[in-house]
Records
---
Amino acid sequence: MLQALNSLIAVVGTLLGASLTYWFQRRAADRSERRTVLSAFAAAVMEQRRGEYDRWWRCSEDPAGAAYLEARTESYRLRSAARQQFYRIRLLTGDAELLRLAERAITVTAQIHKARERAAFEANGAAAEQALEAFLAYAARRR
């Protein structure tokens, strides 16, 4: 009887140990995936911002020129890439505030090229940077 009890305790201990190991590894993998998705989104929005800057400068040089048309097309591609990363975040989390801040980062960044004069262009760029920083600050607090 004692031998059977010892065997049962050993089996239960093994199963408990395996379950806890799995749980901790799964949790670490989820955190790693979350960090990867959030940093990819931030990188995509930064690229979108670069594309918006380029679009504005090319337009200010020659609004009918080939360089502007190319920059405009590239800004659309980069906005789409940022949106794709946004959808990855949506699949990963239901955090409404995180999603709101991510959406805002894309939307505010898309406004950069709409400025008429340089002061507004710089203000739009600063607003885009602040929107991305707000997203990153919130995401960092939600680890």
---
Amino acid sequence: MLSFDLRDLAAQASRVDGELPESDPIWEEGDARPRGALRVTGRVSAAGPGRFYFSGHLEGVATASCRRCLEPVEEPVKADLHLLLVDGSSDEADEADVYLIDARERELDLRPAIREEWLLAAPSYMVCSDACLGLCPSCGANKNLGACGCTPAVDPRWHALSPVGGDAR
């Protein structure tokens, strides 16, 4: 469960134990979505009038294409979270690490803040291995699977620096 009644939170803290599925409408086009559900655990409590504090943990699996060879890659992502959620009329509303909530809402929805924290925690670029050779720039073959047989393309602007073809003055 990632939504909480604000009146209940004002009286006592609540345990957070929920999932944010990859099919949830909170995700936007182009987001690095998790494979399967994103697991969220922790505790949310009131931290004053119009202020709430969430302390917890998120865990999921990021998926992407290797930035060198375009093969699918998965990487586990874990992050500890400490979030301050305040209503828009608060003096802290302009601070970077503060999440705004609508003061007219009756429920505190953690999903937008969890989405942002996931996007910050998930790697932007992933490689299948540090030794990945990538794709051939000429024919596009995956060099990890073997040599492609292409002759390396040489930019003619570098020809003058070649010990064989240029004027070595």
---
Amino acid sequence: MDWLIEKIAELLANSKHAVVFTGAGISAESGIPTFRGKNGLWKRFDPEEVASIRGFMRNPKAFWNFARELILKTKAKPNAGHYAIAELEKMGIVKAVITQNIDMLHQKAGSKRVLELHGSLKFVDCLDCGKTYRWDDLVDRIKRGEVACDECGSLYLKPRIVFFGEALPKEVLSEAIEEAKRSDVFIVVGSSLQVYPAASIPFIAKDSGAKLVMINADPTDKDRLFDIVLHGKAGEVLPKIVDKVKEII
């Protein structure tokens, strides 16, 4: 593993435009459950019922029950992997973080340029009257299972996240694609690249000449398409890479 860490560090130290792409794996190390895999959330919940736009419009309470059961039970904080990525950005090496995650842990760790492909839980909008809430201001109501608009009484309060069946935000997707095209090193951390169109972005980078690096706890069926593959936890591997970059530069 040490020689792989050194190789990745060399790529980063010599890069002009490195980009990091993160998935659920990096947040799992902060205690947030992943969706797929052996112990994934979709083993316990029906995604069509709790995380699709059709399911939400049919029964918004199902989503909020899911939110209360899972999101509020997790007092997640950034882990060493998040902080290492923020450090690389601070050093001027990483130019952007593209994430599939909605937890805002990259921002909490100090990353400044974060492109959230699937939105975030920062704001919640009433689909009927348009009133906007901050997620944090709704926490007590979510815990009580009493999520309704205090302006119009609607139950259709929707967080600004992308549900199954919804398109990714065009502006963010366009920015992410541009960052991929500009990158000379593109590092995927904690994603098995199963959800499209997000999963296509690393290969846009490759087609534009970038070196592709995969850092993931487990093997994926996309590993063969990467220039370097390192199997390990982000919180353990990324700080070592940062230390090695500092030695090189």
---
Amino acid sequence: MVMWFKDSIVYHIMVDRFAGYNLHRDWQKPVFIGGNLKGIREKLPYLRKLGINTIWLSPVNETSAYHGYHITDYYSIDRHFGTEKDLTTLVESAHSMNIRIILDFVPNHCSRWHPFFQEALINRKSRYRKWFYFKPWSNHYLCFLDFRELPKIRLDNRDARNHVIGAALYWLGKGVDGFRLDHAIGPGHNFWKAFSRVVKARNPEAVLIGEAWMEGIKLSHLNTIRLRNKYLRWLYDLRPQQIQREYTGELDGVLDFYFRYLITECIAWKDNPDDHHEQLLNRLAEHYAFFPEEYFLPSFVDNHDMSRFIYEAGQKKAKLKQALEIQFSLPQPPILYYGTETALSHEVPVDLAIPFSDLQARKPMPWNSLDMEMVSFCRELIAKRKKKTLQ
């Protein structure tokens, strides 16, 4: 068990939208608006005062998309975000403040503009052809779900696997403290066992937290994922905790999407949340009892792929506060998505069926209009949690 992560209070940052961005660029378009690593470093005093002790950065690799998840080079930093030196300086500065840095890592797929995929697409005799799931004698290929711009990497190919795992080792060498692992249900368990073994051999204290969730998965997507009994799970809608628990012994834990569902159902969507408080706590206790004691389930009320909690709660700040109070009282590490501490919201829901709808959950951090009452509330919550862990 990575003991330090047990006491983590994680702050989740979408790099392009957090600090250093250009105020005159349109955030409602899927383009880079200028957020960068230097900007994050300049905001470290704010984050330290807030009380967090871990930062989770969205992908910073060379990319064809502002959010970073469309990777074109696993071994370099995208120029929009800065340089490798900017990353190492950020890591060193954060470490000097006792703040750790986790990188978002995307092993399952890359951008169709990755040079290896482009070569494989053009030249059927390329050695990179076997790095992807091309159908025989055609240029049809498996991708991330049904996103054709994201070809799925064949991680059971030794060279492809070594390339991807080698990238994780490269960034560990730059001082990062672990990884949030995107779309963990995509790669197979053999990959995760190898990934974990190699990473832990390099740094036993590196934390590995997976994104393991099946919400929104269609029957046509199942050939792109590597869950056990995936067809039965999809057909019979088995407990989501079973998917979360599947990575026990391979990863240190997984993001707790089920917590987010419960907190939204029992607080955001209820007229009188207090009437459902006891039920919520009982369901959470049952939920946690399903997992090994040393398996991490970091909780969150907001993330970059869904409508913010306060939007779901009808813009009622009191409900957001109530949700955060419960989150920060639980035994698992809490994650605070940037902007939640200032009640950042939106007027249009995130609907993944609508292209670029997720931009609503990725508004720029409103540095010129922070809700300081809400920020102070979050500081107090964090301070209270830290005090409790020291007792």
